[in-house]
Structure formats: structure tokens, C-alpha cells
Specification:
By secondary structure, this protein is an all-alpha fold. It is 69% helix and 0% strand. It has 16 helices and no strands. α2 runs antiparallel to α8, α3 crosses α4 and α8 packs antiparallel against α9.
Length: 425
């Protein structure tokens, strides 16, 4: 909004605040408190010169922070949510003991839920009213990084945060003190657009980190993907920000490598191009098939789920299709072997990273069955599953992502596009 002054953006801010209020969650309020503090500091430091405007920004930020802080305090201490607070306190104490077990190299990434039962405090049993619950994370991202990867990993984690924060601060200092970069025209904004992008992305980045003092939301797909996207945005904006003192005039034209001097390139490049394009297509089909399994096809039949079903597929296909198009275009048009190797490596790495998303979906489905007390397929479980939604009945049998009859004409088309014998295994 500060960059373009477009009114249509303001309702989105209101909708975000309404969403935080009606979901009744304390975490988003914590994130907004942190993001507002960072945002207002940067605005006062770099974007505003008038003393009156600075005071107004400071007062507005103070009001937002105090109001949201009061909301969190009310929810914790006056609305019966104190169990959430005490649960975290005892979990953090146990995590600290896990850190002390291997403080230098850590216990290993992803081992928290395996080790935690040995350190779980008896108080947790009284808080939750049972002893067989599973705690997957420490409710504090920074403590969990230390527990996972020790001082070594924690140092890298802090290094990344500091590198991005200091880089953005220095870039903003340069961009806002030399607004001539915006161009000579009178219609240009005072500051270049990179400055506004940095203001927004670093506020969100640090706001999530502040929020994650009391949570580990970035370990989940829904909020983890935006966090790392913000980290990438900030790093890219700093890296490609044309700092005047670092500029080199007369970069010259790009000259492709002389292939005549190295005849091996003539036959390596076509082969590598074919391999890269093939891998891109195979990985694309794999991801499409797995998303079909994650989404299920019952949304088409359930009027309550159909809007969610079609909206999700629409956005997924937009992202998936554009990604495949760009990967293929780069692979087909690139003139350098290094570029082809980079695309090939990035495509292969998509498989395990996408696997985290699929694993998260399967984890949530497993929680559904565990809450029903169904741990194995048995005659007793077969009787229970009859009352479940069709999608969960199919998950129980492990026979597919939807309720379509595979022997029907439509089912045969789906089987041809999504060959279960290859992709399911």
C-alpha cells in the first residue's frame, strides 16, 4: 500500500485482522506484534523525515502492540487458556534438558518426537489428562534448532538471520538516502520499489521469527513455505540491490563459450538437455499424482467441500503449470552446461522437499485414525470404517485418492493418466 497507494489493498489488511480475531489463536497476534515492531522501526528510521509523522507512526505502532498484547494476556490468564502457557513452559524445560544431553552437535534433525517422551514432565500428564499423547515439537523454533543441530546448527541459524537482517538494513540505508535511483521523472516515487519490498518482506520474516519463540509453525507446510519464501525474497533483494559503491561500470555483453575449442561439449550438452527435460517431466507427473492423492476426489461430490476442492486444484495447477513451463523453457533454451546441471539438480531436490508436504498430509490423516483408536487393519476396524466419509474409507484400504470406480470409463482415463502401479509405489 505504501508503494502504490491502491485502496483495494486495505480490505485485505482488515480481512487479515478479522481472521486473527475470529480464529481465536494467540500465535498470529504474537507474529503481528513482532512484525509491527520491526515495520514501524524501519519506517521511522528510513522512510519518514517529519518529526510529527514519526511520532504518529510510533503512537500507532504502540497502540497496535499494546492492544494485541492485551488480547494475548486476556486469552492466556483470563479466558482459561493458561494451560497452553503452562504446557509450553514445561515443554521448554524438557527441551532444555534434551539440549544439555548433546549441546555441541545436537541429537539429530527430526528426532524430537522420538526422544521427548523420555524427558516429558509428569505435569504434562495432568495438563492433558492422559499420558499417551504425542508432542512432535518443542513449541519454540530456536530451542528446537539447538536441540536438533547443537551449537553448530544454532550458529548457522543465527548467522542466516543476522546476515539477512543486516543486509536488508544496509540496503535500505543506501536506497533511501539516494532516491535518485527512482529516476528523473516527476511521476516517480521518492524511493525505489525495492525499498518497499524489503520493508514488507523483512517485517514478515522477523515477525515470524519473533512469533516462533513460542511456536514452531515454520515446521509445517502452511506457514513454513511462506517463511522460507520470505527468507529467499530478502536474500535476493539484498544480493541484487545495486549498491552504488559496489557497482562496476561497463559490464559488457555476454559472450557464450566457444564450443569449437572443446568438442566434448557438442555431444554432452544435447544428452544433458534430453536427460534434464525427461527428469522435469517425470518429476512433474509424480508431483501431480501425489497431489491428487493428497486432495482426494470426494470434493467433487460433497457440496460443502466442492468450493475448497476446485479452488485448491485451480491454484495448484497454476503453480504447477507455470513451474513446469519455466523449467522446461530454461532446459530447452539454455546455452551453458552449468545451467542444465543446476536445473537438473533443482528438479531432483524437489522430490524430497515436496515429500515433506505429502508427509504432512499423511501425518494429519494418521492422526484421524489414531483418534479413533484404529492402529491396524482388523475385523473390528473394518466394522468401524463403514461409518467414515468415503475418502477415509479409501485411505483405510490404501487403494487410491478418490471414490471413482476404476472399472468405469472415467476411471480408466484416470488410471491411464495416473498409473497407480508406478506412482503409488
Amino acid at each position: 500500500y505504501l508503494k502504490d497507494r491502491q485502496f483495494y489493498i486495505l480490505p485485505l489488511i482488515v480481512l487479515t485482522l478479522a481472521n486473527i480475531y475470529w480464529t481465536g489463536s494467540k500465535g498470529p497476534a504474537m507474529g503481528l506484534i513482532g512484525g509491527t515492531a520491526v515495520f514501524s522501526f524501519l519506517v521511522i528510521r528510513f522512510f519518514v523525515e517529519s518529526r510529527k509523522v514519526r511520532i504518529a507512526v510510533f503512537a500507532s505502532a504502540g497502540f497496535v502492540i499494546l492492544a494485541l498484547g492485551g488480547y494475548v494476556v486476556k486469552r492466556v490468564f483470563y479466558r482459561g487458556d493458561v494451560t497452553s502457557f503452562t504446557f509450553r513452559m514445561y515443554t521448554w524445560l524438557s527441551t532444555w534438558e534434551m539440549i544439555n544431553a548433546k549441546p555441541i552437535l545436537g541429537n539429530g534433525i527430526g528426532t524430537y518426537w522420538v526422544l521427548y517422551p523420555a524427558y516429558r514432565r509428569p505435569s504434562i500428564f495432568h495438563i492433558e489428562g492422559k499420558h499417551n499423547t504425542e508432542t512432535d515439537h518443542s513449541e519454540n523454533e530456536h530451542l528446537e534448532v539447538w536441540m536438533d543441530e547443537g551449537i553448530v546448527g544454532m550458529g548457522l541459524w543465527i548467522w542466516m538471520i543476522a546476515m539477512i537482517s543486516i543486509g536488508v538494513y544496509r540496503a535500505l540505508s543506501m536506497l533511501t538516502t539516494q532516491p535518485a535511483r527512482a529516476g528523473p521523472g516527476k511521476s516517480e516515487k521518492k524511493f525505489p520499489e525495492e525499498a518497499y519490498y524489503m520493508l514488507g518482506t523483512v517485517s514478515g520474516f522477523l515477525g515470524m521469527l519473533i512469533h516462533n519463540i513460542t511456536d514452531v509453525s515454520m515446521r509445517f507446510v502452511s506457514s513454513g513455505a511462506p517463511f522460507w519464501l520470505l527468507a529467499g525474497f530478502n536474500a535476493a533483494l539484498v544480493l541484487y540491490c545495486p549498491m552504488p559503491e559496489k557497482q562496476i561500470s561497463g559490464a559488457g555483453e555476454f559472450k557464450p563459450a566457444d564450443e569449437t575449442s572443446n568438442p566434448t561439449r557438442k555431444w554432452i550438452k544435447p544428452i544433458l538437455r534430453v536427460v534434464t527435460v525427461t527428469v522435469v517431466i517425470l518429476v512433474a507427473i509424480r508431483i501431480l499424482r501425489q497431489f491428487d492423492w493428497c486432495q482426494g476426489r470426494d470434493g467433487m461430490k460433497n457440496p460443502n467441500e466442492s468450493p475448497h476442492f476446485f479452488t485448491t486444484w485451480t491454484f495448484f495447477l497454476l503453480c504447477w503449470g507455470s513451474s513446469v513451463w519455466w523449467f522446461l523453457r530454461i532446459a530447452l533454451q539454455s546455452t551453458r552446461i552449468k545451467t542444465l546441471l543446476t536445473v537438473l539438480t533443482a528438479t531432483i531436490l524437489l522430490i524430497p522437499f515436496w515429500g515433506h508436504f505429502v508427509g504432512d498430509v499423511n501425518h494429519n490423516r494418521a492422526i484421524f485414525f489414531s483418534k479413533q483408536g484404529m492402529w491396524v487393519r482388523s475385523s473390528e476396524s473394518d466394522g468401524k470404517v463403514g461409518g467414515f466419509p468415503p475418502e477415509y474409507q479409501i485411505m483405510y484400504r490404501g487403494s487410491g485418492g478418490g471414490t471413482t470406480e476404476l472399472d468405469s470409463s472415467f476411471g480408466k482415463v484416470l488410471t491411464a493418466i495416473f498409473p497407480d502401479m508406478i506412482w503409488r509405489k
